[in-house]
Amino acid sequence: MSKPPKEGEEAPNFELARDGGGTLSLRQLAGKKIVLYFYPKDDTSGCTREAIDFNRLKGAFAKADAEVIGVSADSVASHDKFKTKHDLALTLLSDPSKTLLDTYGVWVEKSMYGRKYMGVERTTVLIGKDGKIAKVWPKVSVPGHAEDVLKAVQAL
Length: 156
What we know:
Layout: E1 15-18, E2 23-25, E3 33-38, H1 45-56, H2 58-63, E4 66-72, H3 76-86, E5 91-94, H4 99-103, E6 107-112, E7 115-120, E8 123-127, E9 133-137, H5 145-155
Parallel strand pairs: 3-4, 4-5
Antiparallel strand pairs: 1-2, 1-5, 3-8, 6-7, 8-9
């Protein structure tokens, strides 16, 4: 398990399969502000609420020259189904090997009812136009989070 990158550090590069087919890399997004939000699972209550909240603010993020991208270990097929079901216009990346999840330090040991397991710690990372980590929100609580991220993007 890796430690998450710190503010001011160069954002780790990635290239992952994306919803709808093809791949997306950090290099392709050079010169934009990027909101990478890591979430546990498509179509679960908290993850759905978070995706809908970011999707609702997509226009405001675009106006601030920011791209919002969700990342989970779910398959591209799962992402496509999730996007269609909830009418999402966000980009979703698939990381079934958990390489990016581990690189960003969000693939962690969790515990529920005394049972330990590995999973995604809900985390958001803001990458500036310079390719450096501008802000990290660990252990995200969903209500109001997308609005907080938008304020940070607008101030960057």
